[in-house]
C-alpha cells in the first residue's frame, strides 16, 4: 500500500516531473466558481468532494493538473474543478488525454468518465489506453444506467433490465469493468464506492502514486434512474456479507468478525468463498496486488454475483509496474538526439540527391 | 550478346561501386527535348522501385520531371493479371514541364498483362520494350491474347524491342550463389540498366542506393548491381538498340538554387517539421495508417531528433483525439488521413472548432465513396472538408497544387491554424502524394515566422476591478481566442464542446449568446487573411479556367497548348478554398465564361455558383487518374467556342 504523504508529492515518483504547489492547499482551492448542476442526491457530489478533498494532499501546482472528460453526467466533472480541464466528446476522453499526457509529462492528467462513455461508445479508447499504460488516472463512474439521456440501460446494466429502451428487459450481458481492464493489460485496477469517502480517498492516493494508467471503477448511485443499485454494498448490515475489502498483503476475509474468507478451490483452481475454520484458515488467500500474473486479480473480479452484488471485492485488485508509454516516448526522442544529434532542418531539407542551378 | 557481358564476378570487381558509367560512343545519339517512359509489370516486379530509381537518376541529372506512380491496392495482386499491373510513368525534359505526360513514348512491359493494360495509352510509333520470356502461351491466354501480339502483327505500328529480360538477367547472375528465382528478381534492375543506357542517365546514385539498401545482404546488393550493369552493357552492345538519347538538363527552366526531387508526401512531412521549427512548438502527429497518407506517418516517425512525437493510434478518432489533446497542451498538432478517416474524425474536428485550438487535418484524398479506390487519386472531399460536420462548423481549407508545393501548403496551413486558433484542412491527393518533381530547397531564412504567444496572465478586468482570465475573450483583429496552456499559473480554465458564453467561456444555453457565438466563429474564418487570387491572362481572354489542388499541372499544360495554338484563355488556381481570396468574386465577374475542371462531379463549381452567382461551367473526370493535358485542352477549347 502506498504511503500517505503529508508533505506533498516529494515521495511519489510517478509525479516527480509535476511542479509542486508553492503554498499549502486546501479543498476550496480546487473548487471552481461554477454552480454544480447534478441532480440533488446524486452520487457524483460525494465523488467530487472526495477528489477536491484529496487533491491538496498531492501538493501539486494546480495549474499542472488537468481533468479531461467525455460526455455524460459524470463528464461535467471538470467544470467543477479549479484546474485546467476539457469536457470533450462522447467516449474520446482517453484518446485526448493520451495526446496531452504523452506530450506534456509535467502534467497530472485525470480522466473522468462513465459506464456508457468508457465502455460503450469509448470502449476502444479505454482498452488501448490501458494496454499502452499512458500516465493517466481514469475515474470510471459506474451507475449501471444512462443518466443524461434519461434512463436507458448501459453496458454494465444487469441482464433483463427494464428501461425506456428495453420495456421487456435488456438482452445483452454486461461488462465487468474490472475484468475488462485486467484483460486489457491494465497495470492498475481498483474499485471503490461513492459513499465511502475514506476508501475512495485511499484508492485515489494509491492510483496517484501509480506510474502508468490507473483505472478506478467507482460505484456511483443514480438516484433518479437507478436508485439503490449498490445499496447492498452500502447498507451497513448487508455490506458485512456483500463487501470484500482487498488489502495488499492481508488475508482476504470479510463478514462479521472476518468469519468468511476467499480460498482457492483445489479442484478447479478458481476462487470461492468459505466460512473460515481453524482447519482452513491457513488456506485463506493473501491478497497480492503486485503479483506479476493477472490470474488471481481476474478471479477476484469474477467473485461477485452480477445480480445481487454479493461478494463484491473493493480496493486495489492489481497494481504492477510496467513501462510507461509517455516515458518511453520521451526516451525515444532523447535517444534519437543522442544518435543523430539535434535535428538540423537545413540538413534535412537538403538531404538526398541534389543538384545546383547557377545563373 | 550475353557473351559480351563480362561475368558478374568481374563486374563487381572491375569498377568501384558508384562510379559513373558513360556510353562508349559507338552508336548514334539523338537529342530529344522530352520523353515519357512508363515502366509496367506485375505488382511484385518492383516497378515502383525501378521508376523511383530512374527518377532519382533523372533528377540528379538536372532534367525537369513529373511522375505518376499507378498501382493496385493489393500488395500482391494475382500474378500475371490485368488488375495486378503496377506502373510508373515518368516525364522528363530539358525545359519546364507540368504533368507526367499524357501518352508514353516508351513502354517497358515486363509481361503480357502489362502490355495489354497499357498499350491503349501508347501513340503509334512509340517504343515498346517487352520481356519476351514472360510471353508464354499460358500467360498470354490469361489476359486474353489468343495469339502472341509480338508475332501476330498487332504491334506493327510500334517500334518493338523484344528482349529476353529474365534469361539475360539469370545469365548475368549465373556466377552468383542464387537460385533461379532469386536471380530472376533482379530483372527490374536489368531493365533499369538498359533504360539508363538508352537515356544517358547517371548511374552512380543507383549503385550506391543498391549498396545501402542491401547493406545487410552484400550478395544481393552485388547481384542487383551486376544485373543493372548487365542491362546497361546490353544496350551498349546489342544491335537492336541502335540509338540512344540525350535530354539536356533543364538549366534555363529553373531559377538559381539547389534542387532535389521530392514527392508530395515527403514535401508535406518536411513542411510540418519546418512549421514546428518556425513556430518553435513541438510537433505532435496523431494518426492511424491509411493509404495514401501513411507515408507521412512513416516519414515523421523518423525525425524524433527534431522533437517530433508520432502516435499511431487505435483508430482514426483516437488519432485526431490525441492530436487535439496535444494542441491543448501547446504542441503544433497534426492528424493525417484520407477521406474515410476524415469521416470518422468529423466529430472531433467539430470539437476543435468549438474549442478554438490550432489543429492541422491533412486529407490525402483518394477515390471514394467508402473504401473506394485507395491507391487512385480524386479531389472529391472538398465538400466534406467544407461542410462535413454537425452544426455551423466552418474550417479553413488549403490545397497544394504540385508535389513540391505540399511543403509551402503545410506552412500556410500551420500559419492559419496558429494565428486564428482553428482546425485547418489541408487537401492533398494521391496524385500529389506519390508523384514527384524537382524542388528548389529553400533557405531557412525564407521560411515564414510562425511564432505564437501563449497567454501569460489575466486579460480582463471585472467591474469590481479584479483581474481575471477569460478564455474566450478574442483578439479584436483576428477574433482568435487566447491559447492558455496547462502549466500556466492563474489561467486555469475549462473548455468543452457545449456552447460557451462569449468571453468567460462558461457553459451557456442563452439563445442570443449562441446566435452570437455561431456568427463570431464564422466571422473569424471568413476574416482570415489570404493572398488575392493571381490571374494569368496575357491576352485579355474572355474565358477563365479556374482550378484548385492537384489539377494545376494538367490545367496549365492545357492552357499552354491552347495559347500555342493561338487561343486566348485566362487561368487562375485556388490555394485557399475557405475562405476564398477576397478578389475571387471580382475576378469571376470579369470573364464571360468560367470553366472549372475538377476530379469530382463539380464541388468547387457548386461552391462558386452558390457564393458568387456565377454560371460556372463544370468539367469533370472521376476515373482515379489525373487529367490528361490534351483532353483538357480540347474541353477548354470547346468552352471557349461554346
Automatic annotation (TrEMBL), chain A:
The record's annotation in Gene3D superfamilies points to: 3.40.50.970
InterPro entries, A to Z: 2-oxoacid:Fd_oxidoreductase (IPR051457), THDP-binding (IPR029061), TPP_enzyme_TPP-bd (IPR011766)
Q: What biological process terms from GO does the record include?
A: cellular respiration
Keywords (alphabetical) are: Oxidoreductase
Thiamine pyrophosphate enzyme TPP-binding domain location is: 71-218
Signal sequence span is none
One annotated GO molecular function is: thiamine pyrophosphate binding
**Phosphoprotein as UniProt keyword:** no
Q: Name one Pfam family in it.
A: TPP_enzyme_C
Question: Would you say which domain of life the source belongs to?
Answer: Bacteria
Name by which UniProt lists this protein: 2-oxoacid:ferredoxin oxidoreductase subunit beta
Organism this protein belongs to: Streptomyces viridochromogenes
